[in-house]
Every structure is written in structure tokens, then in C-alpha cells.
Amino acid sequence: MSKPKGKQRKNFCQGLLALLAALLAVLLVAGFIGSGETSVRADWRTASREPLGIAPNPVATREAIAQVYTARAFSWRGIFGVHSWIAVKPTDALSFTVYEVIGWNAYHGGDALSIQEKEPDRRWFGAKPRVIADIRGKGVDDVIKRIDDAARRYPYKGDYVVWPGPNSNTFTAFVARAVPELRLDLPPTAIGKDYLPGGDLIASAPSGTGFQVSLFGLLGVLAGKEEGLEVNLLGLTFGIDPMDLALKLPMAGRIGLQEN
After folding, report:
1. Concatenated DSSP letters of 75-97
2. Are residues 192 and 168 in contact, defined by beta-carbon separation less than 8 angstroms?
3. 151, 145 in Cβ contact below 8 A?
4. Does 3 score more than 70 pLDDT?
5. Rounded distance, CA 151 to CA 139, Å?
6. Pick from 169, 165, 132: which is nearest to 244 by CA?
7. DSSP 50
8. CA gap 99, 74 in Å, rounded
9. Which of 53, 116, 166, 248 could form a disulfide with 170 if both were Cys (CB 3.0 to 4.6 A apart)?
10. Of 258 and 128, which is predicted with more confidence?
11. What is the pLDDT of residues 63-81, one digit of tens each?
12. How far is CA 83 from CA 72, 141, 143, 171, 188, in A?
């Protein structure tokens, strides 16, 4: 005798909820692991900001360089996402200039956009940075000028919203769309990257190798040669990158041959 349809539906829903709860638990654990040295009880006054020697020595390196970095966000936010920034060094320059959007500047009535000469590979309040884009040499001086122009045109200099944006990753994606030579594939943990300025619904992918549709950074789809296929649900990215045989998951990040 078969079960009533109502009971079958109830069992199916219970099973689906259990599966979703298990998936969430796995992602949370992966987020804790991925956050690395960032502690949810970290004190920003004592968290390390030391440079790690990842960036080239600008004094010893003549060529022009443009790089993009990410590091797990500060405190509990590092479980869910990363902070990103852009660093450039023109030909023969003796220091790097770092472009980034910093939330607490905006929270205290200042300008969220920060442009400073400093070491680009400093820990982000304890979290180790990693390079996700690096271009050098001929033609990069022109790229650097366009990065500077795009950064100064960023429309949310006085605003910062952790979720779904605009935030530091919204800024980095905005600049990347204006400078496709970076071919930037922001990780799935870069919450805010899909928040399209001006309320636009359609834009080029940050890498410049595809397109995306996004509803205020909360719901959307992205397809690009660099990024692969991504689905955004409530600001969380799920996707697959067939070029690098990698899965993209919220909190966990990129799982495959290359990790972000």
C-alpha cells in the first residue's frame, strides 16, 4: 500500500531541509578553516599588519606591475568572505600604490576609497593575503593609468554595506570591468562582487571575458571564460570553472586545482 501523497511530500521536504542543513554545516566548517589565522575574537588594535614579502621589491624591480590581492575579512566576517584590493607600481617607481575601499572609513563619515603608497602584501588584520591577478611589463603603465581613473570614478565612495554591497569587492569588480586586461576572476568568497553600480541588471563579467545578470547583488547568473559559470543566490556564489576543473562554493571558496 503506497503512502499518501501528503506524507510523501512531507518526507521529501524534511529530507531536503536535512540536506540543506548538512550542506550549510559543511560550508561553515570550510569557512572556519579557510579563514585561517583570522580569529572571530580578534582585536584590530593588535592584529598583525606586517608585510609578507609576497610582492616584488619595488626598488629592485624596474618594470611596471599591477596586482590584485584578497585576504579573509576581519573577525567573524572572515568565515564568510574576503576583502580585496589593487596594487600598482609604474615603471621605475620606488613604491606601490594601493587602492581599496575600507568600511570603517565610511562608517565614521569619511571616504571609503583609500589610495595610499604602502606595502601591498601586508596581512589584513592577521589574515594572509594572496595574489589573484598579476600583470607586468610592456603596456602595464597604461593599464595603471586606467586603474587610477576607474578607481577615482567609483560611485560609492561614501557608502559601505557588508552584504550584499557595495563594499570592497564591489569596488575591485568595478575597476576590473573597466580594465579587462587584469582578466580578474574574483573568488566566490568575494561577497559584493556581483553588486552592479547604478542598479544595472546587466554588465560585463569582472574578467572582461563574459557577461552577468544581477539583481542588486542578491540574485543572478554569470558566465565567462575566466570565471566559468556562477549562480548568485542571496549574495552567495555557487559555480563551476571547467577550465581549471574547480568548484566554487560560498564560505569554502574555490575547490580544485587552484584555490582562491
Report:
1. GGGGGT-EEEEEEEE-TT-SS-E
2. yes
3. no
4. no
5. 19
6. 132
7. -
8. 18
9. 166
10. 128
11. 999 999 999 998 888 889 9
12. 6, 25, 22, 10, 12
Task: For residue 109, count other CB atoms closer than 10 A to its CB.
Answer: 7
Is the pTM here over 0.70, yes or no?
yes
Average pLDDT value for the chain: 88
Q: How far is CA 76 from CA 16, 126, 134, 218, in A?
A: 28, 13, 29, 21
Q: Write down the residue that cell numbers 576581519 correspond to.
A: 74
Q: Which amino acid is at 174?
A: F
CB contact set of 158 (below 8 Å; sequence gap of 6+): 106, 111, 112
Query: 202-205: long-range contacts (C-beta < 8 A, 24 or more apart)?
Result: 203/177, 204/177, 204/180, 205/177
Q: How many residues are present in the chain?
A: 260
Summarize the confidence of residues 170-196 as an average pLDDT: 98
